[in-house]
Design a protein that fits this description.
Elements (H helix, E strand, L loop, with lengths): L14 H8 L4 E5 L2 E4 L4 E4 L2 H4 L8 H13 L11 H13 L4 E7 L2 H18 L7 E5 L8 H6 L3 H4 L9 E4 L5 H4 L9 H15 L4 E6 L15 H11 L3 E5 L13 H5 L5 E4 L11 E6 H6 L1 E3 L2 E2 L12 H16 L2 H17 L7 E7 L2 E6 L8 H12 L2 E2 L1 E3 L2 E4 L7 H17 L2
Parallel strand pairs: 3-15, 5-6, 5-7, 7-8, 8-9
Antiparallel strand pairs: 1-2, 2-3, 4-10, 9-10, 11-12, 13-14, 14-17, 16-17
The chain binds 4'-deoxy-4'-aminopyridoxal-5'-phosphate.
4'-deoxy-4'-aminopyridoxal-5'-phosphate binds next to α5.
Length: about 425
């Protein structure tokens, strides 16, 4: 098997690589729900790659669409020129998006979508004569990618502390997650309105007329599947509307069926002004992101039917033909197979399976929503990732891919997962938990 011998060969530096060098793990193939490792083993994908391969791996329709598009029109300039599939895809995204979000800006990743959304929010406020609105509000434990805007509004201090000031005028609301109230919760925890009222406190502190936008993940994924109380996002919507603040949902994980609804906005019944998406848009196969905005925002950028204000933004690969073809084939696959709502059909089986892990060694909380789950382990003082990483290695050696963040095991299988595969995932995690020394 291949043993990496040079850190320079890897794109995830430092700690991750040291762990990796000790235990090299390479995938060489994938099909539907399984990866094949370089030593020829099958590994059940409990994480949809990185929360992105929602329709499963190597789906023929998507593979063919990419190959055909590469042969037919491989690339078209993203400026001054266009091509039909980008427009077609924008329309298909709008078809499944919450009502009112009907314009699309294409990007190439979640991080780029976040930067795009923040710039659109600030430019919109300026266009509306609200140039004093420059402040942005994120949340503690929010994750919005790794670019400068995203780490500024993101709530992971270690991701930003070495970079100095970053974006100025950013505040972070406390996160919704409170373990003592939520431990082993089924369904959503209470206290939503109270938590959202923290935004009112920040507004009062700064004066509403200085705040441009608030950005939140409907359910924080990467920081441990933190599920908000049912009325939390509704209350954020009320407060933002009252004060003329834009509400941005970062749906990079929660978009495209992950919660059993097309978007997290649908799950919680709250429509933001701007919605950030990526990952599942192209089934994780080709990098692509899409930022959706309301007509109100779109119109503020137009000085006439064809004329955009001076707002230079866009990427060489924005809406490129191959990504657009992949996106169209992905959305078609979701539609044909009912995948955008399959998570709701499986939610009970998923919930019962995950909650059967309550009482296993080290487990202090189990959380679930749609086809996402988290098993939180009691950390060892001073070694906050040790137990979860040990479980990860055991699961991997025994044919199951899980993801860990700190001492939280996160699960998000492709939406094509069968009930028996849910059983396999739960058993794999159970055995991994029992194996922790
Ligand atoms: N926002 C959220 C909510 C995410 O989960 C992620 C990626 N995990 C990103 C943004 C960044 O996406 P990307 O890695 O594609 O840049």
């Amino acid at each position: 098997s291949v043993v990496p011998n040079d850190l320079g060969a890897f794109w995830m530096p430092f700690t991750a690589n040291r762990q990796f060098k000790q235990n090299p793990r390479l995938f060489v193939a994938a099909k539907d729900m399984h990866y094949t490792t370089s030593d020829g083993r099958q590994v059940l994908d409990g994480t949809a790659g990185l929360w992105c391969v929602n329709a499963g791996h190597a789906r023929p329709k998507i593979v063919e669409a990419i190959a055909n598009q590469a042969a037919e029109l491989d690339y078209a300039p993203a400026f001054q020129m266009g091509h039909p599939k980008a427009f077609e895809l924008a329309n298909r995204i709008v078809d499944i998006a919450p009502e009112g979000l009907n314009h699309v800006l294409f990007t190439n990743s979640g991080s780029e979508s976040v930067e795009t959304a923040l710039k659109v929010a600030l430019a919109y406020q300026k266009q509306k004569g609200q140039g004093s609105r420059t402040r942005l509000i994120g949340r503690e434990r929010g994750y919005h990618g790794v670019n400068f805007g995203g780490i500024s509004v993101g709530g992971i201090v270690t991701n930003r502390k070495m970079f100095g000031t970053l974006l100025t005028g950013v505040d972070h609301m406390p996160h919704t997650h409170n373990l003592s109230k939520n431990a082993f919760s089924r369904g959503l925890p209470a206290h939503g309105a109270e938590l959202a009222d923290e935004l009112e406190r920040i507004v009062t502190l700064h004066d509403a007329s200085t705040i441009a936008a608030v950005i939140v993940e409907p359910v924080a994924g990467s920081t441990g599947v933190l599920i908000p109380p049912p009325d939390y996002l509704k209350r954020l919507r009320e407060i933002t509307r009252k004060h003329g603040i834009l509400l941005i949902f970062d749906e990079v994980i929660t978009g495209y069926g992950r919660l059993g609804t097309p978007f997290g906005a649908d799950y919680f019944g709250v429509t933001p002004d701007i919605m950030v998406t990526a990952k599942g848009l192209t089934n994780g196969v080709i990098p692509m992101g899409a930022v959706l905005v309301s007509s109100e925002i779109h119109d503020a950028f137009m000085t006439g039917p064809e004329h955009l204000i001076e707002f230079f933004h866009g990427y060489t690969y924005s809406g490129n033909p191959i990504a657009s073809a992949a996106g169209l084939a992905t959305l078609e696959t979701y539609k044909e197979e009912g995948l955008l709502t399959r998570g709701a059909e499986l939610a009970k089986v998923w919930e019962d399976g995950l909650h059967s892990l309550r009482g296993e060694p080290h487990v202090i909380d189990v959380r679930n929503i749609g086809l996402v789950g988290a098993i939180e382990l009691e950390p060892i003082a001073g070694q906050p990732t040790k137990r979860a990483f040990s479980a990860f290695l055991h699961a991997y050696e025994n044919g199951l891919l899980i993801r860990t963040t700190g001492d939280i095991i996160a699960l998000s299988p492709p939406l094509i997962v069968s009930e028996s595969q849910i059983g396999e995932i739960v058993d794999g995690v159970r055995n991994a938990l029992r194996s922790i020394q």
